[in-house]
Please model this.
Amino acid sequence: MNEVKPKATFLLADDHSLIRQGIVFILDDLDFECEVFHASNLSKILETVKENQIDILIMDAHFPEGNSLSIMPEIKEISPDTKILIFTGTDETTQSLKYINLGANGFLSKLSEEQELKNAILKIYHGGEYISSVTQSLLINSIRNPKIINPLLKLTEREIEIAEMYVKGHGNLEISNKLQIKQNTVSTVKKRIFEKLEIENILELVALMKDYR
Model:
């Protein structure tokens, strides 16, 4: 008796076509009987999910026009049954939990071996999720320390207020005038924000605030 091939509809979302094609080869190796859609940007991902029943979405974390976190709630609203595997070059130890927290069913680094990607795809297909040992440890630690998931929880209300003003483009003098505090106080708070978030510039602050606010 011939073994029944696994059937699924995949959406491969990455702005690099070589990555998508590599995943196609892996699906062939796994002997999937599947229909495969491709997307190279965020709008195409949403368009494809709206128009087709996607079983498994394998998606990069970052695209030229933005972070895939920004569309995950909409994907889940459009198609709650779609399983999402984040496959990215982004550091798993600092990034995976926020994707899992928003509904991703798995997270895998592009630095992983080919076999690990195969395992992740099969686990999501058969069991609905893939949690690596790294992310499992992070999840356990996050129960003890919620700040692991959202680094902004490290900031006080005043620090958040000032951080948001920096993100809006305000300078030290303008923040000082608006909050009626000294400029050197603003500078001190800025330094403290950077230290707590382990960042070095406003661009990194903007990215963090966009991801977590």
